[in-house]
Amino acid sequence: MQNRTTKFILRTSVLCAIGLGLAGCMSADNFSDGTEDPEAGLSGAVQRLLIGTSGSVEPIEYTERGSLVMPPDVEKLPNPEEGDLTAKAENWPEDRRAAEIAKLREFYKVEPGDRLTAEQLEGHRALREQYGERRERRERDYEAERRERELLDGDRLSPDELKELQARYRAAKGEKVAETTDFCIKNPEQCKPQRRYLTEPPLTYSTPVAGFEVKAPEVNKGDEIRARREQEAIEAGKPIDMSQYD
């Protein structure tokens, strides 16, 4: 029993001595000047091996900022700007609609059971004359509404409806061309081509020669519409009208 106790004490003493030695190596190696360097000793060596740096890292040189620019005389500073914000806000535009509505309500305010005055009746008459046309009830076209719902559900336009639609499109297109032509006649300078950047070609290159103006080709939409209808018929499983190919 005594031998076991002696061996335990010896092993404990040896382990304590080894631990103290490793602690001194890992803490620092500058014991001569009394300073402690965290990058020295065993930990510093391991860090240098892992990072790949040799020797100690050079300290960073910091340059102090310049002092603030102060006025030459602190006692003679400019006075704060004086002025009432309410006076400055008078120049802002005001929304007078709320005031006008409140004024009208006050003018037409009548207690229950009282009659309108002559001025109030005259005001009502003027309002009816001014907005009467807008309040007129229009006759509903039930047939047009039903046809519109059918078209929205997927029904196709009839030949007469297609002709009417084409006539409207051509009329609107002609009006647009006429408006553009009239505008160019009245404002010829604005319709001329302009060279805004040096990378653009000269204006003479963009001006067509007289008699050789390029016009947009007229596209026949009939073939495109027919092909689309045939594709829709194939997808719906309906027969295709082959009489147009005779």
Describe the structure.
- This protein has 246 residues and is mostly helical.
- Among the domains are: 2-51; 158-199.
- The protein has 10 helices and no strands.
- α1 packs across α2 (41-51).
- It is extended and about 120 Å long.
- The N and C termini lie far apart (123 Å).
- The model is unreliable at 28-32 (pLDDT under 50).
- It comes from Pseudovibrio exalbescens.
- Residues 1-28 form the signal peptide.
Termini separation: 123 Å
Compute the number of strand runs: 0
Helices and strands, in order, run as: HHHHHHHHHH
- Low-pLDDT regions: 28-32
Strand content: under 5%
Question: Secondary structure elements and their pairing?
Answer:
Layout: H1 2-27, H2 41-51, H3 85-88, H4 97-107, H5 118-135, H6 142-152, H7 159-186, H8 188-191, H9 203-206, H10 222-236
